[in-house]
Write a structure and sequence with these properties.
This protein is largely without helices or strands and 191 residues long. The chain is 5% helix and 2% strand. It is built from 1 helix and 2 strands, in the order αββ.
Length: 191
């Protein structure tokens, strides 16, 4: 398939045509209306998706490494198995998003809205020798669910974890203030 341009991508989404496995490397969809689009296994490495509407989008196993998703709407997006290594999701709306099995190493979720998001068994890590950690600093994680996930090295400073379920999550080595977990569901020995 030839490389699609912005207008072709938007038209395909509007016509409910899938973009499964499409090479959309460094595509500029800033501010685009692509809600409910099917981007399963698409290569969106370095894509510019700032302010894009990806509500209910299927991003199953999509490669979003290094993508700019600042301020994007990913409400109820399906990101199972997605690669978000080094992606910038600052200020994004990820309410109700489903991240099970996703790789979030070095991703920036500062000030993002992740209320009710499901982060079951997500993977974190240091993506490169410079050591950028995944950050949820100042993010709203109210009611979010973290499955059996090791949060070591993840920055949760200033995050709202009211009602967040972290009972199965490993919290030792997390970057957070001592009272960060006071309104979350955790195991006392977890941090």
């Amino acid at each position: 398939m030839d490389k699609l341009n912005r207008d072709e991508i938007i038209t395909r989404v509007r016509n409910h045509e899938g973009l499964e496995e499409a090479d959309l490397t460094q595509v500029d969809l800033s501010g685009a209306e692509v809600s409910s689009g099917d981007f399963a296994r698409a290569k969106l490495t370095g894509a510019l998706l700032k302010g894009a509407n990806l509500e209910r989008a299927n991003l199953h196993e999509a490669d979003l490494s290094g993508a700019d998703l600042r301020g994007a709407n990913l409400r109820n997006a399906y990101l199972v198995g997605a690669n978000l290594k080094g992606a910038n999701l600052e200020g994004a709306n990820l309410e109700g998003a489903f991240f099970s099995g996703a790789y979030l190493g070095g991703a920036n979720f500062r000030q993002a809205d992740l209320r009710g998001a499901r982060l079951g068994v997500v993977k974190f890590g240091i993506p490169h020798p410079l050591g950028h950690v995944c950050t949820f600093a100042g993010a709203n994680l109210e009611g979010a669910f973290f499955g059996a996930t090791d949060l070591r090295g993840v920055d949760l400073r200033g995050a709202n974890l009211k009602g967040a379920f972290l009972y199965e999550a490993g919290l030792r080595g997390v970057i957070a203030a001592p009272d960060t977990f006071k309104n979350a569901v955790t195991r006392a020995e977890a941090y």
